[in-house]
Structures are given as C-alpha cells and as structure tokens.
Amino acid sequence: MSDFQVQPILLRNAVTRWEEQETLMTQAVSELGSASTDGLAPSIRAAAGSFLAAWRGYAGESKAIAEGFTQALNDSLEDITSTDRSQADTYGQLDGRLGPAT
Amino acid sequence: MSAVIEVPSEVPAIERPEGNPAAADSLAEALYTTAARYEEFGDNAASLQNFDGSWRGAAYAAYKEAAAKASGEHSSMAATVKRVAHAVTSYADTLRDLRRTHEQLSDRRTNLNARTASLLEDIRAANASAEGMTPEVLADLRNRGRHLIRLVDDLVTDRDAWASQVQAAEDLLRRSFEAGTDLGDALSELGGVSDTARDAMAKPGAPGPSSSPEQVHDWWEGLTDAEREAVTSAYPELIGSADGLPASARDDANRVLLDGDLARLGAKEDDGTLSSLERKTLDNARATESALKNSEEYRDPLTGNLTGSQLWLYDPSAFDGDGRVAVAVGDLDTADDVAVFTPGITTDMSKVASYTGQMNNLYESTRYNGDGSSVAAMFWLGYDAPDGVTDTATMTEGRAEDGGRRLADAIDGLRASRGDDPADRAHLTAVGHSYGSTTTSYATGKFDLDADDVVLVGSPGAGPSDHASDFSVGRDHVYVGRDSRDIVAVLGDEGWVGKGGLGLGTDPSSRDFDATRFEAERPDRGDIRGAGDAHSSYLAHDSESLYNIGLIVDGHGDQVNEAEQSYDPWYDAPRDPEWDRDPASPRTPGRSETRPEE
Fold first, then answer.
1. Is B355 part of a structural domain of the chain?
2. How many Cβ contacts (< 8 angstroms) between chains A and B?
3. Does residue B288 fall inside a structural domain?
4. Pick from B147, B163, B193: which residue ends a domain?
5. Could you state, in order of their start, the residue ranges of all structural domains in chain A?
6. Is residue B189 domain-shared with residue B328, that is, in the same domain?
C-alpha cells in the first residue's frame, strides 16, 4: 500500500488554476478563429489558413486537457472529502468503551 | 539615307507586392498571444505538479505524470507558434522594405519612360526640321539612346532581383506555416522552421560555440538573400547576437525578437500571468522600444539626415532581468569612426533610452568638430554591471574582468563583421565610464582589445594595469577625462602611497599611469568634491569633456586640450592641478562647443 497524504485546500487551489488555464485556452480558440490572413500575399494565405485551423483545433484540445485536470482534481476532492465524511460517521458509531453499549 | 537610333522600349508598370505589413503584424500579434497562452499552460502544468509533499499517494503519482507530459508538450507548442510568429513579423518587416524598393523602382521607371518619350519626340523633331538630321544631332541622339538603354537594362535587372525577393519572402513564410501545422511538427524542436533555414544552419561556420566571428562572417557572406531571410526569421536569438555578422543583420533579428517580446509578454500582462522575471523582461523591452524610437528621430548635425539606429544586442532577461543590450546611433557596418561606450554601476537595461540619448551627443560632437568622416556611436551593456554602491560587486573587480572579456569579444565580432579588407576597417574607440572604465581597462589590459583608442572617464581605477603602456592600444592612444569634482574618479591610487584598496587600481589620470589627460571640468562646478553631477556629465552637450572625446572618436586624439595629470606626493594629500583652472564657458569654440547653435 502506498504512502498517502492530502491537504484538500491545495487541491482546491490547483483546481482554480486549471480552471483559469481552461479559460485562457478558450480565449485562444476564439482568437485563432478570428485571426485574419488578409495581410498576407495570396500565395501564403492557404498555408496560413491551414495553420490557423489546425492550431485552433490544438487549442481546443488543450482546453479539454485543462478541463480534464480540473475535473479529475474535483473528483479526487469530492471522493476524498466524501470518504472522509463517511469514515467519520463510521468511527463516530464505534463504541470504544468497556461494558454494554448505551 | 536612313539612320538607326536605338531607343529602349517602354518599361511596363511594376506590380506592387501583395500583402499588408500592418495587417501581417496583427496576425503576428495574435500568434504571439497564442504562444503566451501555451507558455502559461506549460508553466502552470509544471508548477502544479509540486504540492510540497502535501499530496502523496498513487493518485498523486498518476496526476504528476500526466501534468509533466502536458507541461512538456505545451512548452514545445509555445516554442513552435512563437517561431511562426517571428516568421510573420520578419515577413512584415521585409514587406515594408520591398514596398519601399517598389516605390524607388517605380520612380525610376516613370523617369526613364519620360526620358524615352522625350528622346522619341526629339528624334521626330530632328527629322521634321528644315536642316534634317545633321551628323552632330544624330550622334547626340544616339548617345542619349545608348545611355537610356543602359539605364533601362539596370532597372530591369534590379526589378527582376526585387521580384525574386518578393517571391522568396512569400515562399519562406508559406513554408514556415507548413512546417508548424501538423501535430508532429508542432511538437517538434524544429516546428515552424523552414527547410531553407535548417539547411543554411547546417553549413560550416554557422553561428555556434565552435565558430569564430571570422567563420560566421564568411558563412553569412556565402548565404543567398533567401537563406539570410530564412535564418533571421527562424533563429532570431542566434542571429541577433552572433559576433561576426553585419550590424544590419543583427538589427533585423533583434527587432523581430523585440516585437515578439512586446506582444507575447504584453498578452501575459493582460492575462495577469507575468512572472517577476517576465515583468522585468517586458519593462526592458519597452525601454528598448523607447530608445529606438528616440534615436530614429535623431538627425545628423551637419547634413540634417536621419542617422538611423541599430539594435546590436538584445537579451532582456539576461542577468536575472538586468538585461543585455547595445544600441548604436549611425551605421556600424559602414562608419569610418566607431565608438563603443561601456557604462558603470547601477546601469541596467531600464536606462537604455537615457544612454542612447548620450550616444546622440557623442555622435553629434564627433561630427560637428570632425573631419567629415562618418560616425557610429554605440551604447554597449553586454556585462552585468554592479547594482550600486552597496553591491559588494562594486568594490571588487570580478564583474569588470568578466565584462572586459565580453567587451573584447564584442569588439572582435564588430571587427570581423566588416571583413578583412583594410579599407573597410573602422577607426574604433572604446569609451569606458566609471566602473565601465575598469571593465574597459580589463578588456584592453588583459584581453587584448582590438581598438585603436581608449578613453576612460570618471574612473575609479584602471583594474589590472598600472601604466597606460600596459594597454593593447599603446600608451599614446590612452586618454583620460577626470572632472576634479568627481568623487568616484579620485578613488584610484594616484601615487605610491595608495589609498588602501579604496578604488579599483591605479587612477588613470595620474602621472604614474601616464595617459593623456584631457580637460573635463564643468563650467558650473562648485567648491566641494562630490556635489552636483560631476560623475555623470562627461557626455553633456557643450562640455569640455564631450568636445575632447569627440575629437578622439574622430581619430584626432592628438588635438585634445590636454590637462595636467594628478599626483600624490608622499608628504601630502593627492593633488589635482585642474582643481584651480578656470573651466571653459559652454560653447567655447575649440574647447567646449559640441553642436550647432539651436
């Protein structure tokens, strides 16, 4: 069994930062979508257009990656706090005294 | 009888290159913003792996592995999109140049077509005249025709070369986009780098640790225009700091980097994600932009023409954000006389605009009192100057020694960039101020600085050298300016008694050092040493000091107004004969006049 320890507050902070990253990548998707190739000579525009389209896709993937980290960390937090709560109930019901239960 | 007069055909209109530089800059800005987002992702994913032991276990191990992978990949993506953004910036700059050339070619075409039409008219008139076509008139018309044909041939040659450059610029950017589009390329270390650039960098002598400045110079000379554009666009960091390359090439590359930093770090500033080092880097980039803007408006005092400026070195995050930078007023590639100014303590990149202004002064004085030779004056901050009087590095010579080596290397690079033809060799003067004079002393006293003349002003000591003859330029080419009220310039030893290590070696204005000391007193000096700004006025307009430094930079050090050297008698305190001399009033011809009347 592995050594286990966690401070939920730090996970919450990490969630916040991943959410911010998700927002930034959402903006990147939008900015790449609105970037114009009009300033380039016609012979370059097709290649530039393909580049922007591809990178818009990559930025979308990156947004999904950030979202994935956010979700996974949230899930961990929820599992940990819920397990902790549930275990607290279990331990709360233990009768640690000698003699008949009251 | 009929006679033949050859006349050139009308030159057809020259098509303006397609594309819009300002709109291309906007596209580059969007890409720099994307690069900023990817950098932030990479940095965040790296920093969010570390929970300082507060999260341990199997889940953490799996999370950390995933975050590490995301960090690495996003950092690679950031580098690729930044390279492509650089390529777009470079294209926009090239397009501006090509448009300027287009205007010049079109003007030439208009002029030549008009002259051809005029010749045809004259031929018709001669034919229709009562005397007919006399032999003299025929000879004159034939000469004009032949001359015009030569001019048209030259124009067509230049037009074709220009059209090839247009095509090459478009091909280069197209290939840069293509080289960064597929995911494999986007994640690669060479994402966004065109084949042309890769092939050029594989040639012998390309900038790198194993190439000498002379080899780098030869490598550049062997590249085609298209290859030069390609390497500038793909490797601006390398090209911008490569010793041996022409200043114009370094300038092009460094301006690409500057534009990129302003846009990319500006985006991060807007996002609120700047690190402290990036904050300093952005401030340094803005200071450099301001310096260049000011110097680009500066005009030669004699011709009234813009002098132009060159960003010879640009490394704004170096030395923990103090930065490295060099800006020249004038053209380092062609100037007859070149000055390289090394500053002292407290100088970091935030002061580049102020020092570039002082280079305007130096340029101005050199030209105004000069022999008509062309001039370039460069502010060089290529070393880590101590932060201030409380910085322990100020009292030691380590930074000066390191800086001296760097300065000597920089000068070697400048020398190599102009080739080995003696006719192209500049008269070069190294000017060091304050701690920078000690740095310059190391360069010339220990690292064989390849300068013609050396000027030390406001010097706390000449570092490793006890005598002017220890300098690589020889005793007769060492000049020293010391304002008698400058408190820093009296720290060095002026006699055998010494000052107990207070300064940084021998005072170069002293008899013992035996350099040529020149007048450098301020007209508004007081009676107290250290009062006022004696230490920071050596390049002030219409001062004795600037007048004399200008003469030295112009190659006429033998004409400086000499001052008596200081000395330190064993029985008394050090003495400075300049203390009691009446300084020249400002704008005294032959003493302190350094510019035209305003």
1. yes
2. 138
3. no
4. B193
5. 8-34+42-89
6. no
User: B125 or A101: whose pLDDT is higher?
Assistant: B125
Asked if the model's pLDDT at residue B14 lies above 90, the reply is yes
* Cβ–Cβ under 8 Å, residues B195 and B178: no
Is B356 within a domain? yes
pLDDT in tens, B86-120: 999 999 999 999 999 999 999 999 999 999 999 99
Domain of residue B317, CATH code: 3.40.50.1820
ipTM confidence score: 0.89
In a domain, B235, yes or no: no
3-state secondary structure of B241: coil
| Interface touch B177/A51, C-beta < 8 Å | yes
Contact A6 B55 (CB under 8 A): yes
Per residue in B298-317, is it b (16+ CB within 10 Å) or e — as a string?
bebbeeeeebbbbbbbbbbb
Q: How far is CA A49 from CA A37, B18, B32, in A?
A: 7, 17, 16
| Distances B539 to B329, B358, B419 between C-alpha atoms, Å | 15, 6, 31
The total of structural domains in chain B comes to 2
Structural domain span for residue B464: 298-580
Give B574's pLDDT tier (boundaries 50, 70, 90): confident
B211, amino acid identity: S
Q: What is the pLDDT of residues B267-292, one digit of tens each?
A: 999 989 899 999 999 999 999 999 99
Q: Do B37 and A39 touch (CB under 8 A)?
A: no
**Residue of A22, A24, A69, A79 to mutate, testing the B interface (most B Cβ within 10 Å of its Cβ):** A24
